[in-house]
Amino acid sequence: MNNMKKLIFAFALTSVLFSCKKETTNSNKTNNSNSITCVDNPNINFTSIGTPVGKFSDCIKDIDGNVYKTVTIGTQTWMAENLKTSKYNDGSSIPNVKDSLEWSKLTTGAWCYYNNDVANNAKYGKLYNWYSVSKISNGSKNVCPSGWHVPSENDLTVLTDYLGGESIAGGKMKEIGTSSWIESNNTANNLSLFSFIPCGAREANGKFNHLSYFGGFYMSTESDGEGLHSVFSYKEVWIGIDEDPKKGGLSIRCLKD
Predict the structure, then answer these.
(1) How many degrees, rounded to 5, is the angle at CA 215 between CA 213 and CA 217?
(2) How sure is the predictor about 14, in pLDDT bands with cuts at 50, 70 and 90?
(3) 217 and 163, same structural domain?
(4) Core-most of 42, 103, 131, 158, by most CB within 10 Å?
(5) How many structural domains compose the chain?
(6) Cα-flanking dihedrals φ and ψ of residue 71, to 5°?
(7) How many C-beta atoms surround the C-beta of residue 45 within 10 A?
(8) Same domain, 84 and 201
(9) Are residues 123 and 166 both part of a single domain?
(10) Looking at the structure, do residues 166 and 43 belong to the same domain, yes or no?
């Protein structure tokens, strides 16, 4: 009788393990083809001080196959890494423009690596001009993965309000430590797990600056003929909203529809 019980138990255990394995495999195949099981990325620092107010969600994949961690903060789900795609989500290419003079004359979408150095892509992602996010300029294309979009000014306000307002939200959104920011980055606690890093910028004249000191990501909103973007600084706890020429280059963080 004991041997029979052992046999039944072994059979049941095997069935459960097979079922779990099958469920884990199928979890990569959801209704949203961009949603996949996350694997830890050792190049990104997701540690925080205190109790996080954000919660990691499924990873997503862009048209180029780049994989991004995502985080749910309040009612919104954001990418927790900067965009790296070289294509719109319909598969059409976004030009990589290296030359400063050519960059300064653009009125259409383009991207570059900071300092035109591909080594910066893995950590900081790409820099894009505002024309790449504007559906008026890019022919109604979407630079974000399907099911995601470039946030509007109102989208960012929803996020910063949830984090206590613009005056303190920046510190809750910045990666802590000095592996990305310069040594005086003592205003960051990353409690949102948004993990923003100082990716620098490309000016409208094509010059690069501010890596490790400053960063921001574009919004789809424009004001007075210029593109709006967020502003993060190594020494500030606030997050700002600024307007700059559309020819400038900044990061992009996508928001789930």
Answers:
(1) 175
(2) very low
(3) yes
(4) 103
(5) 2
(6) -140, 135
(7) 15
(8) yes
(9) yes
(10) yes
Q: What is the mean pLDDT of residues 54-82?
A: 96
Matching residue, tokens 């749910």: 72
Phi/psi class of residue 116: alpha, beta or left (left: φ > 0; alpha: ψ in -120 to 50)? left
Could you tell me if 222 and 228 are in contact, meaning their C-beta atoms sit under 8 angstroms apart? yes
Three-state SS for 170-215 is HHHHECCCCCCCCCCCCCCCCCCCCCECCCCEECCCCCEECCCCEE
d(CA 249, CA 28): 34
pLDDT band at 40 (very low <50, low <70, confident <90, very high): low
Closest C-alpha among 38, 146, 33, 37 to residue 90: 146
Read off the tokens for 236: 């500030």
**134 and 26 part of one domain:** no
Place of tokens 């990569």: 28
Co-location of 24 and 103 in the same domain: no
Q: Which two tokens stand for residue 219?
A: 């919004």
Cα–Cα distance, 86 to 43 (Å, whole number)? 21
Mean residue pLDDT across the chain = 86
Predicted confidence (pLDDT) at residue 182 exceeds the cutoff of 50:
yes
- The pLDDT value given to residue 47: 60
Mean per-residue pLDDT, 87-98: 98
Are 118 and 24 in the same domain?
no
Domain limits for position 14: 1-30
pTM of the model: 0.83
Is 10 found in the same domain as 82? no
